[in-house]
Amino acid sequence: MPRFLAGLLAAGGLVWSTGAWAVEISISCSSLGKEYEICKQGVDAWAKKTGNTVKIVSTPNSATERLALYQQLLAAGASDVDVFQIDVVWTGLLGSHLQDLTAKVQGAIDDHLPTMVETSRVGGKLMAMPWFADAGLLYYRQDLLDKYKRPVPQTWSDLTETARLVQEGERKEGRGDFWGFVWQGRAYEGLTTNAVEWVSSYNGGAIVDEKGEITIDNPKAAEALKAAAGWVGTITPEGVLNYTEEESRGVFQAGNALFMRNWPYAWALAQGADSTIKDKVGIAPLPKGGQDGRHAGTLGGQLLAVSKYSKNTDTAADLVMYLTGPEEQKRRGIQGSFNPTIVSLYGDNDIARANPFIGDLVDVFTNAVARPATVTGDNYNKVSTEFFNTVHQVLSKRAEPAQALSRLDRDLKRIKRSGW
């Protein structure tokens, strides 16, 4: 084949391979924890099966930075990425740039968790496929709870008391860098997920309710933020104000914390052969805000979507269907602790052996707290940014909870006037 012609076709995503036309597809994969490695294994298997090739585009670990990158690419109509890994709260934000997959999936979507399917739709159209489910969880050191004869905490006050007791005890034994509780406190989307859990656990409602009413300025929400601010510098390091998932996991997995709030992905890493806390970790629902509170884990998870600017949308959709299918979701569940979105896999014995807690998570996901992405639509990112910046001010002692939430209420009303 003439070299100039091959170059033109390659620019359109076509590659001449072993006497036949193959397509090159690009996919964005997170590099959080094991995500990049597990993603690469999946796309390599699809490439081998189909004869196509796949290029993985690395993205920032910070969800906020990743969203900004996606918005920049899609706003420019760029075809650099065919398949996007997106957060469950981004479907509405990015939906106008995504391919409708309704005709591609047919009845397969009915096999997935309803809560995850709901996050994949925009205006009744299926703009993404559920890939793995997430909800915030409490990780704890079972060996240390046994050592100090303490139960798994059921309320935040229980957690605070136990964290102080164990932290003091471990430091008396010479572990000056030991902390009671680590979580995600940087001013980014991860702080929104943490703070939504705190507020909901105290029955402080959502930031914005299902009817679009702003509800965050209330005494229960202020009480929740006051409790969280009290952890910083006492049972939680000051540095938590710049922690994302990986910083908090690093402290916990190094054996330097009793409790950690994180997503399910951290389980496989904590149980890794090189982990200092292997076989010493337990998982539980996040604590309640009090005896009359509730266990509240924020609904998370990731979807796969096809860019409508892709030059090979059919092949890209085929890759999405493979990666979100039962065989690949089972493999990811076993090797990476990625929780399936296919309901039947929660009864799979192989997944259960790799993740003993998996059977309990169907209820966690079913009852998980959703961020107000659907009701606020295109304005969700603005709403979340105002929220996590406000919370960060409270945590860093630059604002009192009640006054900060009053200002947040005013700022959210300003955003609402532009329509949601």
TrEMBL record:
Signal sequence region: 1-22
GO molecular function: maltose binding
A single GO cellular-component term on record: ATP-binding cassette (ABC) transporter complex, substrate-binding subunit-containing
Family annotation (InterPro entries): SBP
Family from the record: Belongs to the bacterial solute-binding protein 1 family.
Pfam families per record: SBP_bac_1 (PF01547)
Protein name, per record: Sugar ABC transporter substrate-binding protein
Keyword Signal: yes
Keywords: Periplasm, Signal, Transport
Species of provenance: Microvirga aerophila
GO process annotations (BP): maltodextrin transmembrane transport; maltose transport
Top-level taxon of origin: Bacteria
